[in-house]
Design a protein that fits this description.
With about 270 residues, this protein is mainly alpha-helical. Helix content is about 80%, strand content about 0%. The chain is globular, with a radius of gyration of 26 Å.
Length: about 270
């Protein structure tokens, strides 16, 4: 955003400049204070625009999460309905902010490319869902999650959903051991399992700490976080006892909570 500053001097100021230097100086001081106020005012406008953008995006993104959730369960028809709502609200996001991104996104060289990428993935995913191709539709749509997370990361923006995303990413790494039970005879593998467990626990605790009051007070949120942390903590005992089955069962128990956390609060 650029500004053109115009300094307007009252008609009698030339005389003041020669006859009354103090009066002239006070006049200039008043003018520069006025100019400063004008220049500073848009800061609040920019902040409000960012909030409006995040609010509009959040309203659209909820439909995206619902669609991905349905597609994982091969319910392409329900996903298509959600994607149509996502498409409508995403269009409102583009119409409202595409050509005039709010700060700090206004300096992002990849802003337009990101919005285009989301639109392309959405259109492809919706077409596939309408055709009943649940698996292909989900694969087409998943990059949207990464694109939007990267957009915020590039611009130093952290919303609560990003803490949920970090918890999901940490658990996804740990979930590797659901299909690949740890070899407790391999010290390096046990160390990797322990590190990924610690990262998941830390990410979930951070998610709980960063939750805004409106979310932290919800029973569902507290239950999802507390249950997940309870079972993850029990994995320490499973590792100590070298019990592969318990490791696998804990991961099977937690994965649904991890998915619902993103669905409802991501």
């Amino acid at each position: 955003m650029s500004y053109t500053l115009v300094c307007v001097v009252p008609a009698d100021e030339p005389a003041n400049r020669e006859g009354d230097p103090m009066r002239f100086a006070k006049s200039l001081m008043s003018i520069w204070v006025f100019v400063f106020v004008i220049a500073a005012a848009p800061t609040g406008v920019r902040a409000a625009s960012a909030d409006a953008f995040h609010g509009a995006l959040d309203a659209a993104y909820g439909h995206y999460r619902e669609a991905v959730f349905y597609l994982k369960r091969t319910n392409a028809m329900s996903a298509a309905f959600e994607l149509e709502s996502f498409q409508e609200k995403w269009k409102a996001v583009r119409d409202g902010f595409g050509a005039a991104p709010p700060s700090p996104y206004d300096k992002d060289a990849k802003w337009s490319a990101t919005l285009d990428g989301v639109s392309a993935a959405l259109d492809k995913g919706l077409a596939l869902a309408v055709d009943g191709e649940a698996k292909a539709a989900r694969e087409a749509l998943l990059p949207i999650r990464t694109m939007l997370a990267d957009l915020r990361r590039r611009n130093g923006v952290v919303l609560f959903g990003d803490y949920v995303e970090r918890a999901n990413v940490a658990f996804a790494a740990l979930f590797h051991y659901r299909r690949n039970p740890p070899d407790f005879g391999d010290a390096a593998e046990v160390e990797d399992l322990t590190k990924k467990l610690a990262a998941s626990i830390a990410a979930y605790k951070t998610c709980r700490e960063k939750a805004p009051a409106a979310i932290a007070g919800q029973d569902q949120f507290r239950r999802l976080i507390d249950d997940t942390l309870f079972y993850l903590d029990r994995m320490h005992l499973a590792i100590k006892e070298k019990n592969q089955l318990n490791v696998v069962n804990i991961l099977r128990r937690v994965v649904s909570s991890d998915e619902i956390l993103w669905l409802r609060f991501g």
